[in-house]
Amino acid sequence: MDNHSKTDDLNPVKQEVSNPGSSQEWLNALRLLRIPFSFFLMPVYWFALLNTEINIAKAILVFIILHFFVYPASNGYNSYFDRDEQSIGGLKSPPRVTVQLWYLVILFDLIGVLLSFVVNILFAIMMIVYLLISKAYSYKKTRLKKHPIIGAFTVVLFQGLFTYIAVQVGVTTAYTLTLSN
User: Fold this and answer.
1) Residue 88: helix, strand or coil by DSSP?
2) What global pTM score does this model have?
3) Is residue 90 part of a domain?
4) What does the DSSP 8-state code read for residue 146?
5) Residues sharing a CB contact under 8 Å with residue 25, sequence separation 6 or more, in sequence order
6) What CATH number does residue 136 fall under?
7) Which parts of the chain fold into alpha helices (H)?
8) Which phi and psi angles does 174 have, rounded to 5°?
9) pLDDT single digits (tens) 6-65
10) Considering just the CA atoms, what is the radius of gyration of the chain in Å?
11) How many CB atoms lie within 10 A of CB 106?
12) Cβ count within 10 A of residue 34
């Protein structure tokens, strides 16, 4: 009888790691965050800036939070559960998924959320919601992406409209945000 339970597959700490301190394992995990791929989501950011009075410092910080922490953390989390072996999001041959990816995802989530509080509390709350929805999209027990309509709706709503509004909330000093902006 196999003592391996289904929950062991979801626990990153119980997974075997060939060399937990290997710099190559960490570099591979960093590659799986697909930071360059995050820049494909830039149009939503730029579009949100069009009709908004911008605080330049906050706009730069929001850009960094989204494109260097939040989107990569979401990409990494998705890679962690999908374990793609063929081309995915800018990686022709993705490296093997290891527990280091899990740790980087948590680190990037934390940095993204903490930096979001520097922007403002509403933006931080929106980033937390975004990260939770992106987890629900990929996590094996909820896996929104396995349902075509729900998955597509989630992507359009959260990588589109929700992010558009979050950017506006983050880059402006006024919280009076309307869809007529």
Assistant:
1) strand
2) 0.80
3) yes
4) G
5) 17, 18, 19, 98, 100
6) 1.10.357
7) 23-32, 35-38, 42-49, 56-64, 71-82, 99-119, 121-138, 148-155, 163-171
8) -95, 140
9) 444 555 544 544 556 688 888 888 888 888 888 999 999 999 999 888 999 999 999 999
10) 17
11) 14
12) 22
Instruction: Identify whether 105 is part of a domain.
Output: yes
Range(s) of the domain holding residue 50: 24-171
For residue 1, being part of any structural domain is answered with no
Q: Which residues contact 180 (CB under 8 A, 6 or more apart)?
A: none
Residue 172 amino acid letter: T
Q: Hey, is 68 helix, strand or coil?
A: helix
User: Does a structural domain hold residue 163?
Assistant: yes
Nearest CA-CA partner of 151 in 132, 133, 163, 131: 133
CB 127 within 8 A of CB 68: no
Alpha-carbon torsion (127, 129, 134, 135), positive or negative: positive
Nearest to 48 by CA among 141, 177, 167, 146: 167
Domain count, the chain: 1
Nearest to 80, CA basis, from 62, 100, 64: 100
Token readout for 49 is: 């800036």
